[in-house]
Amino acid sequence: MIDPHVPPPNDPAYDHDHDHKPDPDPDPDPVRDPWRPSMRLALQEAARAVPAGDVPVGAVVLGPDGELLATGHNEREATGDPTAHAEVLALRRAAAKLGEWRLPGCTLVVTLEPCVMCAGALVQSRVARVVYGAQDEKAGAAGSLWDLVRDRRLNHRPEVIRGVLAEECARQLTDFFRGL
Predict the structure, then answer these.
(1) Predicted local distance difference test score (pLDDT) of residue 25
(2) Which residues in 27-79 belong to E strands, given as ranges?
(3) Per the confidence metrics, is the pTM higher than 0.90?
(4) Does residue 100 carry a catalytic annotation?
(5) Would you call 174 helix, strand, or coil by DSSP?
C-alpha cells in the first residue's frame, strides 16, 4: 500500500540522500537564506530595546569575512538621543572596533528597513550591503518610500537585500505596538 504522506521516488520533494524524507524547505531562497542566522541575531538584539520602551529594532554589522563586529538596538528612549537608532549605534560600534569610519566589505543586517537618517549613515560608512527584514512603508529609505541607498547621484550605493525573515521582523514590531 502506498503511504499518501510519503512522496513517490520521482517526486522532486523526495530526498534521495536523507533517509527518503521530503525536503523541509521545498523553495530555498539562495539570496535570503544565507542571511537568516544573522537576522535571528538582529531579532534577539531588537528584543533588548523593549524594556526601556524603545521600538524593537535590532542591527548587526558583519565584517567582510562574516565575523560579527557589532550590534545595536534602538536606544532613543533609554538615552534621550534622537539619533540612537539600531543601525547608527551598530555602525558606530563597528567603526570603533575597526578603528576606521569606512566599513568596506561590511554588511549591516537590520530587522526594519532603514529610515532616511540610517540610510545616509549606511552610504557614508561605505558598507557593501544592507540586509533588512520588514519593510517600512511610512519611513523606509531602502526601497519602499524612498531609495536613498541606491540613488545614482551618490558616490556609494550598497547592495540591498530585503525581506529576510520579514514576517518574524514585522510580527515583533506589531506585537510591540499592540502592547502600548
Answers:
(1) 55
(2) 58-62, 68-73
(3) no
(4) no
(5) helix
